[in-house]
Amino acid sequence: MRRFLFPRLARTLPAAWGILSVIFLLSRALSSAPEGLTNIQGASIGGHAATPDQIRAAERLLRKRRGLDLPLFYITPAATATKQALAWRWHWHGTHNQYHTWLYSLLHGDLGRSFRDEQSVSMVVLRALASTLPLTCSAFVGIVIVSYWLTLLLARHRWLRPAVLAGLTVLHALPLFVVAFFLLLLLANPDVLALFPAYGLNRPESDTSWGEQLISSAYYLVLPLLSLVLVSLPSLVVQVDSALQHELKANYSLTARAKGLPERLVIRRHALRNALLPAISYVADLLPALVAGAIVVELIFAMPGMGRLLAEAAASRDFPVLLGAISVIVLARLLAQIVADWLQVWANPRIEAQA
Amino acid sequence: MKQPRPTELWAWWLAVAWLALVVLVALCADFLPLSYPAATPDLYAITQPPFAGPHWLGTDPLGRDVLAGLIFGARTACLVSAPAGLAAAVIGTILGSAAGYWGNQRLKLPAGLAFLLVGLLLFWGCFTGPGPWFLSWLVVVGLALVAAARLMRLSERVAPQPLPLDTIVLSLLALLTSVPQLVLALAIAAVWPPSLSTLVAVLTFTYWPVTAQLVRADMRRIRQLPYMEAARAIGLPTWQIMGRHAFPLLWKTIRVTLPLSLATLIGLETTVSFLGVGLPLETASWGRTLATARLDFTAWWLIVFPACAILLTTLALRQLPFYPFGKSS
């Protein structure tokens, strides 16, 4: 276990730290004017417009509260006036800087506070995760089950192949939000078929039973789930299908057929197990991709969650929330990669023998 | 050479014709005789259904003409995806082939170069660092003299150091692929003020790892081939080996991936504009037109027409590598 885990952590953790640092430094270095000051400048409460001095004082207070008055990094260039001209010089600030403070609190599990409403980012992210995880997890399970079933169907009934593969190609060419819109247009439209609600989540009422609540919230989740499944399906099915076709032509499949096994068993017991090996790494990439897909789906169907949090934080330049959400996604990706590596070694012990 | 099947021919020519139409429309969007100008709201015809003049494809809830929006959206799609795709292909090819060709051990830098770099860095650091500058100036001059004296002998004694190029490129790739592309594009686009060139830069930055990974793997395979060994054995210069002997083989991979990456980039661009990040508000885009459908779901023309434009362009770009005649197939 130790020989397995540590090299992988040593490889992936620096990458995660690096990308988070890059996004942090970029966001802090390029956002000079803090958000929220425009409100102060425009505000004139009771006919009193703020004087420039008051605005400057308010800005200083806001910067101090957010920790933006500290220098950005350990060494920063600063302009100093010499006798001839203005010159750039490097200054050493020690550990009293924004980057160090951020990294220190990140390692202690503190993600900071939102620029917009001063809420704790960890709380905001946890709340968003609680409403996103049911969606992404059920989408994940749905994708795996449907693609397994569809691949078997394609292998058994060969006459279906051209039509289904063409449909998958068309589906693969569409971005997620277009698919979601088409679903809305067809299934939540009073002019065509008003089967499902167009947006929102079920609000739980206290007097209904637990089972009814589950059913009604599932009813609201159908369209978002369907769009996520439809978009992720083509690449997985096409990949597993081509691997399966390759395995079915291999000699051991011929042997299995020759000894009189029915085609059903040849596919399931012999060919499919080998065909699933390359799909493992793809499935591991699916979970972070689903979180990214949730950005679009949650925005279209007006649901609270991780993706909506990301999109709104990006649109309103709320950098602590943006960074917090990205850290969670990076963490999910890291875990998924390690689990995928472990699964691959478990499914195919030859890999470890080579390494 | 095998004879191409008629359906392949048809599909390929259809794809080329559609792409030519998109590019042509994008080029002369300003001169086309539109029945209604773009980006000017017609407040008498809000959310008007299509197939009636002057708005032949209808209007959105803000009264803007859908046909004009699609035509100028084609220009945006071309202006964003083509430069981003080309730049990503160039960066990916250069870094990927360098990493694949030299690996970790084979690019040897003479030690003198490293000393020179360190000396220059020290020189620059003393000049811009804190402290009275004349003192550091003296220190630098002294250091430079010592370094110059040492350089002659050190570079003879110390063996050339290999540059771990492969590790550097691989860690860059790991860095950029540790976040999903859409999330990375969203985060970086949020930092910069929205503009067309920013979006191109962001998409290039997030997309070059895809090409780099493919080219690196391909270069590692090509490097082992006997004719490359022969080229090295007769002592050809490296640029000639790379450019004249390895690149024609690499070009096969790049030629196939370029249209596919353009298709992906068009999808990314429309998604990012749909989310309202990256492009300035007044720029027309297929994603923007689709986003207006959120105001009114029953307006099917706001969904169907831009979606068809995206679908046909993506399918055409995917059909493009299946070149049905000539030596490639």
UniProtKB/TrEMBL annotation, chain A:
Pfam families: BPD_transp_1. The chain crosses the membrane at residues 128-151, 163-188, 218-238, 275-301, 321-340. Keywords: Cell membrane, Membrane, Transmembrane, Transmembrane helix, Transport. GO terms for biological process: transmembrane transport. It comes from the Bacteria. Residues 129-340 form the ABC transmembrane type-1 domain. InterPro entries: MetI-like, MetI-like_sf. It is a multi-pass membrane protein. It is found in: Cell membrane. GO terms for cellular component: plasma membrane. Belongs to the binding-protein-dependent transport system permease family. This is ABC transporter permease. It comes from Hymenobacter elongatus.
UniProtKB/TrEMBL annotation, chain B:
It is a multi-pass membrane protein. It is found in: Cell membrane. GO terms for cellular component: plasma membrane. Pfam families: BPD_transp_1. The chain crosses the membrane at residues 66-95, 107-127, 133-151, 163-190, 196-215, 299-317. SUPFAM superfamilies: MetI-like. Gene3D superfamilies: MetI-like (1.10.3720.10). Keywords: Cell membrane, Membrane, Transmembrane, Transmembrane helix, Transport. Residues 134-321 form the ABC transmembrane type-1 domain. InterPro entries: BP-dependent_transpt_permease, MetI-like, MetI-like_sf. CDD domains: TM_PBP2 (cd06261). PROSITE patterns: ABC_TM1. One of its GO terms (biological process) is transmembrane transport. Belongs to the binding-protein-dependent transport system permease family. This is ABC transporter permease. The lineage of its organism: Bacteria, Pseudomonadati, Bacteroidota, Cytophagia, Cytophagales.
